[in-house]
Write a structure and sequence with these properties.
- The chain is mainly alpha-helical.
- It is built from 2 helices and no strands.
- The protein has 2 domains: about 45 residues; about 35 residues.
- The chain is rod-shaped, with a radius of gyration of 40 Å.
Length: about 100
């Protein structure tokens, strides 16, 4: 070994590695892939839990606000539309009756 320089004769290049070294390297990559998959699964589970908790809190907050559900709103809206139509029909009939009464 020369002074100040590392001995490169012991460093194995990928082309010169033995099969045991390659198997160890593949095992390492396999373990890293399993670890990454496990982490992704854990994060997906945590994400689902956060979504469920958020939805529960939001529903509770809306319930406290005394907000009308969409279905009930639509029913009342339809009732109001029908009432307006009936009112218009009654006004028209009233005008017709008043005109008949004025002629006689």
């Amino acid at each position: 070994m020369r002074a100040g320089r590392p001995d490169r004769s012991t460093n194995a290049t990928p082309q010169l590695m033995g099969t045991d070294d390659m198997q160890n390297q593949y095992r390492l990559f396999d373990d890293l892939a399993r670890l990454a998959n496990g982490a992704v699964g854990t994060l997906a589970g945590a994400r689902n839990e956060v979504e469920v908790l958020f939805r529960q809190r939001l529903e509770a907050a809306i319930a406290e606000m005394d907000v009308v559900p969409r279905e009930e709103f639509e029913v009342v809206r339809e009732m109001a539309r029908k009432a307006r139509e009936e009112n218009e029909q009654l006004l028209q009939r009233l005008e017709e009756l008043e005109q008949k009464l004025a002629k006689t």
